[in-house]
Amino acid sequence: MKQERIDYRMGLLTSPSEVDAGQWNALVAQEAQPTPFLRHEFLSALTATQCATERTGWAPRFLTLVDTRTDRLAAAAPLYLKSHSYGEYVFDWAWADAYQRNGLDYYPKLVCAVPFTPVQGARLLAVDEHARRQLAASLVALAEQSDVSSLHVLFPTEDETQALTSLGMMRREGVQFHWLNDGYRHFDDFLSTLEQKKRKNIRAERRKVHEAGVTFRRVRGQDATHDDWRFFHRCYKQTYREHFSSPYLNLEFFRTIAQTMPENLLLVIAEREGRPIASSLVIYQRDAQTGGTLYGRYWGALEHVPCLHFETAYYQPLEFCIEEKLAVFEGGAQGEHKMARGFMPTVTRSAHWLAHPAFSDAVARFLENEANLIHAHVDELREHDPFKR
C-alpha cells in the first residue's frame, strides 16, 4: 500500500505567541521525555517578560511545520538567534574566541534550546517520527541557508541526537549529576544506602542548620503569595550578586509562571526567628509511567548559616521527591560535590553544526578527544560512588 504524501508548511516565528498554545502543548505532552520547560507557558513567559528577546541576545525564531491537510501543527522547535553564548550551559566560548582571532564572526548563531535551562528533554517536538525527521532536516537546512556561523541543539534526547548527527551535525557530551529514587520510604531510608562517612556527614550538615534555629516551609506554586515570590527573587538576585554577574530572570517572569503553571512549582523557604532568610525554587513534572522528575533550579540566601545551601537546595527537595514518589532529581549543571549526597554522574548531549569547513574539522577533532576524556572521567567517578558496597 502506497504511503500518503504529507506536505508541511514551514514557519519561522518571532514570538511564541504566534503559535497556538494548545497545539504546542499537545506536542510536548506526547513526548517520551516531556519537561515543563518546553511548555508554551514557560517559553512564552521568557519572551513576554523580556528575559529572552532580541534585546537580551535571545531573539526567538521558533521553527514550525504545519500539516497542510489539517492546518494543524505537526512539528516545532524552540529556536533562537543568539548574539552571545550566555545562558546556554554548553560552553563554546573557546570556539568564539578562535573565530575572533582569525578575523571571523561567530555571532550570530542559531541555538535550539530552552534559555537559561540546562535540562535534558525533547527539542524536536513532533506528532510522529516522519514529522520529526522533516523538522530535523528543516532545522539543518535553515542553518545552511542563513547568515549564521553555526547551529547548536542543546540537551536533546538520545534519539534526537542520533537524528541530527545523521544529518551531519557533531555530537558533544557533558556531565550532570542526578539522584534516583529507589523506592525510598523516607529520608533515613535513603541515608541507609550510603557509606557510613557520607551518611554521617549529611546528618551533621542537617544538624548544624537545625541547631542554628532554622525551620523550613515548602510552598507549592498554587499556595505561594506575592510576598513569597518577592522574597525568593531577592534571594535569586543575591546569588548572582555574590558571583559578580547579572541575573537572567526578573520578578515578573517568576510571577508569570506562578500564574500559568503553578502545579509545577515548589518554593522552599528557610526561616529563622520568624524571618525568611533563604529560598530555593524547584520545578517538577509528574509522569504516570516513570513517576516524574524534579529539577533543581535556583537558590539564594540573605544570611550566612553553615550548610544552609545543602539543606535548602538538596535535602528539602530530596524529602519532597521521596514523599511525592518522584523518580529523579536532576541537580542542574556541574557540581561534583553532589555525588557525596547521592547524585550520580549522567552523560548529557548536544549537537553542533559549523558553517566554516576548517573550523568544523577542528571542532570535530576536539569533540572526539573531549568525549574520550568525559567517558573516562565518568567511569572514574562511578568507581567512587557514595553508596555502600
TrEMBL record:
Q: What is the protein's name according to its record? A: N-acetyltransferase
What keywords sit in the KW lines? Transferase
* InterPro entries hit by this protein: Acyl_CoA_acyltransferase (IPR016181), FemAB-like (IPR007434)
GO MF, one annotated term:
transferase activity
User: Looking at the keywords, is Transferase present?
Assistant: yes
One Pfam family linked to the record: FemAB_like
In which domain of life is the source organism classified?
A: Bacteria
List the PANTHER family hit by this protein, alphabetically: ACYL-COA
Q: Does the keyword Transferase apply?
A: yes
